[in-house]
Amino acid sequence: MSAPIKGSGEGGLKTPQRHPLDWKNPDFYNEKSLFKELERVFDICHGCRRCFNLCNAFPTLFDAVDESETMELDGVPKKVFWDVVDHCYLCDICFMTKCPYVPPHEWNLDFPHLMLRAKAVNFKKGETKFRDKFLTSTDRNGKLFSIPLVAQLVNTANKIGFARKMLQSVLGIHAEADLPAYQSDTLKKRAARRPKVDLTPEPTDMTTGKVALFGTCYGNYNEPGPGEDLMTVFEHNGIPVILAQDVQCCGMPKLELGDLAAIQSARDANIPVLAGLVDEGWDLTALVPSCVLMFKQELPLFFPDDLQVLKVRDAFFDPFEYLALRHKEDKLKSDFKTSLGKVAYHAACHQRVQNFGMKTRDILQLVTDTQVETIERCSGHDGTYAVKKEFFDASMKIVRPVAGRVKKAEPDHYGSDCPMAGHHVAQGIGDGSDAEHPITLLRKAYGI
């Protein structure tokens, strides 16, 4: 839990520090204590306002202050505090790129983790909507909706206007929100059919040279193509790849819901399997930045003394971070067959906050006659935020500048490391085109 600390003043050059989450402390769920901290932090944010152009949480707060009788935080109804919490989807961009008061500053401000605490209090009170629990049950939904006949029915219904209006009326899922299709031919099935490639790993200082892919719920049930592309690209570069078996959702959807018990369950299910793979010499990766972030940052902050969690953290890489490390040691092939032309590349928030740089851009720019225009701005999707009836309009407003940048660039290809963000950008563009994952573009460039 955050509170003022003795530390550096504003303007210091020290690296931002993330404190472990004190989520097992009973005071973490004390609503009176929570609101005291919300008042402290919101008052600082109101006086600063650097984050006005990020997610809709900050405009919601600032507008409420400006429209109050006092034009200060004390004039804002406490109900609005919950509105601010609901608009935060824990992208971490405010903490990592905007806020001057993060630790080690003495004000010790961690806005995203305070919002997480508020969501956890709300969840513990039993006030979470059924819809939100349903949307974040990605493993259960994926297993059910990927059954062959069920997948066909669900995918068809999601394209019928009447059915979507019913879904909006009953569940609160916006009728115009783009919903991902379910695939009965999952990544797990496709990986099992792939011919085995006999490759000898070539380790470097930072990599073992062989990778276990954490398939992710979305990558397994909704969009398995990029997972196949990753396996093909990595194997082309001499990197053996396997799909991690017997794992479940990383827990990020439940984290954003405030269901912290589910985080414990996800840790208990996944970490022993992944730590076992690390012990066998496998590095780890995933194609959804949020899942990578869960293992590299969030779980270690929940379980800072769990050596298995820390072992997995240290072995987990973003796919393009991994390829960049291999390239640094002359282990990445440059036998590209096809230019990609101009690429508009959206850097996903949950990738940016991992602080390893623009490795996707760097790798794509290795392709002959390829120009990459990077867009560092939130897409406003968040996996579930953009499909909810009450937040869809806000999400489309947030994505508008990104879509505008893509249209202005007139690219040959566009996409994002976050596939859901990419498709949301496509909906914002609205011309019938669609995003392509960067790993898919890299496979095209190799001509494999």
Topology:
Elements: H1 31-48, H2 57-67, H3 78-87, H4 93-98, H5 111-124, H6 130-135, H7 138-145, H8 148-157, H9 161-171, H10 187-193, E1 211-214, H11 217-222, H12 225-236, E2 241-243, H13 252-257, H14 260-279, E3 283-286, H15 289-302, H16 307-315, E4 316-317, H17 319-328, E5 341-346, H18 349-352, H19 359-364, E6 370-375, H20 392-409, E7 413-416, H21 419-429, H22 438-446
Helix pairs in contact: 1-5, 2-3, 3-5, 12-22, 14-16, 15-16, 20-21
Describe the structure.
- This protein has 448 residues and is an alpha/beta fold.
- Helices cover 50% and strands 6% of the residues.
- A four-stranded parallel sheet has the order 2-1-3-4, with helices on both faces. A three-stranded parallel sheet has the order 6-5-7.
- α2 packs antiparallel against α3 (78-87), α12 crosses α22 (438-446) and α20 crosses α21 (419-429).
Our estimate of the beta-strand percent is 5-15%
- Most strands sheet: 4 strands, parallel
For the residues shown, what is the average pLDDT?
93
Domain count: 4
Unreliable residue stretches:
none
Order of helices and strands: HHHHHHHHHHEHHEHHEHHEHEHHEHEHH
Give the overall form: globular
Instruction: Give the helix level as a range of percent.
Output: 40-55%
Please give the count of helices.
22
**Derived structural class:** alpha/beta
Q: Separation of termini?
A: 50 Å
